[in-house]
């Protein structure tokens, strides 16, 4: 067996333990050290050296932490303690390891040193029955496990069901960019958790703790929160980092911040990313929903809109513009448009021109004939439309639609608004253009 022992920095124990679980399922805490048994995983990672390079890769793991390796977890932890105390490693391991590096011997260290017993090997050479009577069986069990003669017993680490990680800031943060700098470490840990759980995140929350409870005579809330949602499950921290950065750049902190907390609100099973084997089919750049989410944060939810179909036969009311992101973060479905108008699904569909005017244009009528850059010549018979009588929002639409020819504009789409009983003469309007 082959064990690694390392001592993660303060406040990063959870992140390092989750990172270790990417390489082996046999990860445990042993006193102050994180220990990994990697003999069963070395071949999967291309050998011992490649596994170590991947595990301690600076761009992923951050600053290199103190670590050591040995045939048992006891040896690996003992060598780590020597490294931290800047003491030389003896030639005979484990026989010449100091007793101060064995946790089970710490309670009896003074007594053992007075008897001249200062190393693991010297303690192992003493009569076992006498050691058991004087110091107890756990000391002998630890020695046997350190030499690999007894199975080691550890409580293996598992991932939590929900990602929830806190981070103490090295210095008080007074602005959003400072929070973003610290939050990147939490996002790195989140990516590890998502990969190990085979999950994609849909919603998460960044929470910060104010260092002051009262400022200028005003009571402050203990915490501030920033919820972040995305339309599709993702493990892409670059997209989440951009979204968080856009939010934080517009966030004003009410007081200095000393702690950060990142937790998931909603996740979904991760199906992986589907890519083509052909290089030309691989789309580069960010996906559409990522662009919409980022612009919605930067410009405002109501400034990034999409057309949506409405159940109305009136051409000018067949669609409406709605925010591209819904209240829960999902993208609103966009209507299929044809140059500014929603494609209809009724009998008038065949008559629709490529371009509809935003507002119907009233036409001048002379001798009972409408004019638009000259008198219009009707080319089709009337297509009758009656709608809007049920909603009460506007007068009912009583229209007869025609395709007409204008001497100057070419083919146009017009309608005659039939008057209600007791009203004035019919009125003509231009609705669309074919040219």
Q: Report the total helices.
A: 11
Number of domains: 4
Q: Name the structural class.
A: alpha+beta
Beta content comes to: 25-35%
Gist of the model:
The protein is an alpha+beta fold.
Report on this model:
The chain has helices at 13-20, 48-55, 58-61, 73-84, 109-114, 120-125, 128-135, 137-146, 176-197, 237-249, 288-299; strands spanning 3-6, 27-30, 33-37, 67-70, 164-173, 199-210, 214-215, 218-219, 223-234, 257-269, 305-309, 319-323, 337-338, 341-342, 355-362, 364-366, 369-371, 377-378, 383-387, 397-406, 410-417, 427-433. It folds into 4 domains: 3-146, no CATH class; 164-213 and 220-269, Dna Ligase, domain 1 (2-Layer Sandwich); 308-342, no CATH class; 348-433, no CATH class. The protein is built from 11 helices and 22 strands. The strands form 7 sheets. Strands 15, 18, 19, 20, 21 and 22 form a 6-stranded antiparallel β-sheet that branches. A 4-stranded antiparallel β-sheet has the order 2-3-1-4, sandwiched between helices.
């Amino acid at each position: 067996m082959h064990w690694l022992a390392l001592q993660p920095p303060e406040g990063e124990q959870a992140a390092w333990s989750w990172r270790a679980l990417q390489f082996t399922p046999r990860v445990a805490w042993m006193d102050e050290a994180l220990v990994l048994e990697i003999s069963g995983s070395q071949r999967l990672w291309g050998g011992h050296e490649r596994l170590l390079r991947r595990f301690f890769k600076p761009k992923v793991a951050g600053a290199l932490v103190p670590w050591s390796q040995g045939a048992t977890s006891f040896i690996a932890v003992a060598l780590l303690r020597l490294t931290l105390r800047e003491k030389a490693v003896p030639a005979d391991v484990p026989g010449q390891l100091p007793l101060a590096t064995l946790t089970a011997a710490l309670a009896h260290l003074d007594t053992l040193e007075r008897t001249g017993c200062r190393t693991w090997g010297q303690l192992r050479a003493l009569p076992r029955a006498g050691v058991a009577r004087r110091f107890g069986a756990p000391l002998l069990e630890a020695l046997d496990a350190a030499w690999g003669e007894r199975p080691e017993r550890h409580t293996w680490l598992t991932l939590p069901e929900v990602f929830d990680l806190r981070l103490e800031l090295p210095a008080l943060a007074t602005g959003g960019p400072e929070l973003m700098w610290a939050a990147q470490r939490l996002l790195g840990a989140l990516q590890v958790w998502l990969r190990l759980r085979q999950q994609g995140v849909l919603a998460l929350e960044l929470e910060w703790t104010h260092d002051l409870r009262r400022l200028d005579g005003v009571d402050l809330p203990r915490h501030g929160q920033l919820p972040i949602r995305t339309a599709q499950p993702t493990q892409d921290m670059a997209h989440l980092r951009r979204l968080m950065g856009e939010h934080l750049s517009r966030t004003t902190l009410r007081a200095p911040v000393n702690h950060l907390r990142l937790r998931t609100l909603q996740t979904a099973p991760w199906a992986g990313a589907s890519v083509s084997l052909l290089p030309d089919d691989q789309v580069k750049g960010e996906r559409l929903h990522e662009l919409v989410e980022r612009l919605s944060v930067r410009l405002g939810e109501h400034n990034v809109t999409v057309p949506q179909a409405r159940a109305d036969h009136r051409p000018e009311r067949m669609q409406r513009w709605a925010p591209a992101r819904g209240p829960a973060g999902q993208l609103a479905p966009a209507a299929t448009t044809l140059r500014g108008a929603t494609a209809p699904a009724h009998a008038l569909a065949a008559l629709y021109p490529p371009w509809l005017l935003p507002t119907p244009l009233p036409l001048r009528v002379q001798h009972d004939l409408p004019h638009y850059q000259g008198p219009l010549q009707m080319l089709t018979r009337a297509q009758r439309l009656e709608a809007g009588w049920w909603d009460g929002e506007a007068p009912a639409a009583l229209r007869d639609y025609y395709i007409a020819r204008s001497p100057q504009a070419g083919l146009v789409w017009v309608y005659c608004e039939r008057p209600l009983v007791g009203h004035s003469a019919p009125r003509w309007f231009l609705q669309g253009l074919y040219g």
